[in-house]
Amino acid sequence: MKSSEILNINEKNNCNLSKDMKRKFIMITDKILNDFNKNNKYINLYITDSSEIKNINKRYRKIDEETDVISFSLEDEYDNCLGEIIISEEYVKNKYDNYEKCMQKMLIHGILHILGYDHKTEKTYTEMIEIQEGYLKDFYEKKE
């Protein structure tokens, strides 16, 4: 599968990622999926606003509040689609100082959830965050 096919980016509700951000998202996804031997798989990514992610959070997680990222693993349901990630661009812009770095962090966090990582215990939280921060450092500090 070509790198450009591993991440389907859908922008909704006046959200608009730059071409550079999309390119970085594809690079990040490609690297992580290759590292986890998921080369022939893809992920659907939705960039939306706080209102929509709040509705999704309420409907699927029974939590009636905004959040930055939600992910759904779909690997057992579809042959090549690993899952879906929803990021609230509005939430990220309003809550965090470094938009670009935080958007990349949300993508990495969502991918790791899809790959089976969670933060239900201190041990799994620490493991997931170490992996997340390693990827974030690799990609955010790259000057391409």
Please tag this protein with its features:
single chain, alpha/beta, Collagenase (Catalytic Domain), four-stranded mixed β-sheet, 49% helix
Write the layout of secondary structure elements.
Layout: E1 7-11, H1 19-35, E2 42-48, H2 50-61, E3 69-73, E4 81-88, H3 89-95, H4 99-114, H5 122-140
Parallel strand pairs: 1-2, 2-4
Antiparallel strand pairs: 3-4
Q: How would you describe the overall organization of this protein?
A:
By secondary structure, this protein is α/β, with parallel strands linked by helices. Helix content is 49%, strand content 17%. The chain has helices at residues 19-35, 50-61, 89-95, 99-114, 122-140, and strands spanning 7-11, 42-48, 69-73, 81-88. Strands 1-2-4-3 form a four-stranded mixed beta sheet, sandwiched between helices. Helix 1 (19-35) packs parallel to helix 4 (99-114). It is globular. The mean pLDDT is 90.
Briefly characterize the structure.
With 144 residues, this protein is of the alpha/beta class.
Number of domains: 1
Distance between the termini: 23 Å
CATH H level, superfamily name: Metalloproteases ("zincins"), catalytic domain
Give, in spatial order, the strands making up the sheet with the most strands.
1-2-4-3
Mean pLDDT score: 90
List how many beta strands DSSP finds: 4
